[in-house]
Amino acid sequence: MTRGLYRGAIGETFYTDPMRFVPLLLLCAILAGCATPEAPAAAAIPAPPDVAAAPADASRTPTNLASKVLQPGKGTRHPRPNSDVTVHYTGWTTDGKMFDSSVARGEPTTFRLDQVIPGWTEGVQMMVEGEKRRFWIPARLAYEGFPDKPQGMLVFDIELIRIGS
């Protein structure tokens, strides 16, 4: 192959069987396929202006979970502690850093309410389908004691899409 390239570079005309290059072309194609670019990271959703602390008009539970309805829902049925729910959500730390979002990923998430942080279990039970609510979840109802997770009070916007079983 290098001989052919050299001959072509000095202006000689030559012919070679193109089938000789099929293995090399296949190897290049395979290697190129392995080097596909990574999917772009989900864009950060800006934090709400009240991310640092719950506003005075937010409702509070006895556990100090604060919330505010952003969009009323339809219906009267609330999920139970062991219900499967489908939600869209975005979570921020109080300094405004988004740490997780199904909205940014473009796909709702389904889970059982008894398999999430206590602040979610308590808060989502207050919602009805179609409702969107902002929660200020104190550290002890969030990831306190889990150093690899976001710490301190967390803020979530949660939209309850569907209540399952």
What features would you highlight for this structure?
7-stranded antiparallel beta sheet; Chitinase A, domain 3; 165 residues; alpha+beta; 2 domains; globular; single chain; 19% helix
Q: How many helical elements?
A: 4
Mean pLDDT figure: 85
How large is the share of residues in beta strands? 25-35%
Q: Could you tell me the CATH topology label of the largest domain.
A: Chitinase A, domain 3
**Spatial extent as radius of gyration:** 27 Å
Write a compact overview of the structure shown.
With 165 residues, this protein is of the alpha+beta class. It has helices at 2-9, 22-34, 102-105, 118-124, and strands at 59-60, 66-71, 84-93, 98-101, 109-112, 132-137, 154-163.
Give your account of this protein's structure:
The structure is a single chain. The chain has 165 residues and is of the alpha+beta class. It folds into two domains: 2-34, no CATH class; 59-163, Chitinase A, domain 3. Helices cover 19% and strands 25% of the residues. It is built from four helices and seven strands; from the N terminus they run H-H-E-E-E-E-H-E-H-E-E. It has helices at 2-9, 22-34, 102-105, 118-124; strands at residues 59-60, 66-71, 84-93, 98-101, 109-112, 132-137, 154-163. Strands 1, 2, 3, 4, 5, 6 and 7 form a seven-stranded antiparallel β-sheet that branches. Strand 1 (59-60) and strand 2 (66-71) form a beta hairpin. The longest helix has 13 residues, at 22-34. It is globular. The model is unreliable at 24-31 and 34-40 (pLDDT under 50).
